[in-house]
Amino acid sequence: MNKIEVIDISLDYMDNGKRFHALDRLSFSVKEGEFVSLIGSSGCGKSTALGVLSGLNHPSEGKVLIDGHQIKSPGSDRGVVFQHYSLFPWMTARCNVILGINHAREKIPKREAESLAQEYLNKVGLEGFENKYPYQLSGGMQQRVAIARTLAMQPEILLMDEPFGAVDAKNKMVLQDLLLNLLQRDEHVKTIVFVTHDVDEGILLSDRIFFMNNKRIGQEIAVPFSRPRIRNEIFDTDEYRALRRQIMSLFYQNVANQIGGAEVYL
Amino acid sequence: MKKLYRLLPHLLFLLLVALILLPSNVEVPSYWEFLLAAGAIEVVLILKRHSSAATNIGIIVMAFLDLWEYYTTRVDGVNTMLYPIPQKVFALYITDFQRISMGVVSSLRLLFLSFFLALTLGIVLGMLVGWFENARKALFPIAKVLSPIPPIIYSPYAVALLPSFRSASIFVIFSSIFWSVFMNMILSVSSVDKKIMDSARTLNIKTIGMFAYVLLPNSLPMLFNSLTVSVSTSFMVLTAAEMIGATSGLGWYVKYYSDFADYTRVVAGIIVIGFVVTMLNVLIRLLRNALIKWR
Question: What is the pLDDT of residue A106?
Answer without folding.
Answer: 81
